[in-house]
Amino acid sequence: MPDLEELADRLGSIAEDLADAALDRLRRNADAIRAGGAPDPALVAEEKRITRARRSVEKAAGLLGARSTFEFDDGP
After folding, report:
1. pLDDT 10s digits, 2-49
2. Is the pLDDT reported for residue 67 higher than 70?
3. Are 22 and 51 in contact (CB under 8 A)?
4. CB < 8 Å & 24+ apart, contacts of 19-23
5. Does residue 75 fall inside a structural domain?
6. Within a domain: 38
7. pLDDT tens track for 46-55
8. Has residue 73 been placed in a domain?
9. Residue 55 domain-assigned (yes or no)
10. How many of the other CB atoms lie within 10 Å of CB of 51?
């Protein structure tokens, strides 16, 4: 079983892959616009969905990485 820091690192790598995927969608739409076309609404929606997923993964990675470094008080 990997430790939390290792899991946080793996999630960080996944977040980078998701960022690359989102940028790919943005580039494809930019290329279409440069060619005189219109942005593809499906690509726009997909980029937004990927970006939301990336943010969630980054948040999870940060929480796991922080857990191994800091103590949190979960309340009473």
Report:
1. 799 899 999 999 999 999 999 999 999 999 999 999 999 999 999 999
2. no
3. yes
4. 19/54, 21/50, 22/47, 22/50, 22/51, 22/54
5. no
6. yes
7. 999 999 999 9
8. no
9. yes
10. 17
d(CA 10, CA 16): 10
The number of distinct structural domains making up the chain is 1
Angle, vertex CA 72, rays to CA 69 and CA 76, nearest 5? 165
pTM: 0.80
The secondary structure of the chain as a DSSP string is: ---HHHHHHHHHHHHHHHHHHHHHHHHHHHHHHHTT----HHHHHHHHHHHHHHHHHHHHHHHHHHHHH-------
Can you give the residue range of the structural domain that contains 18? 4-68
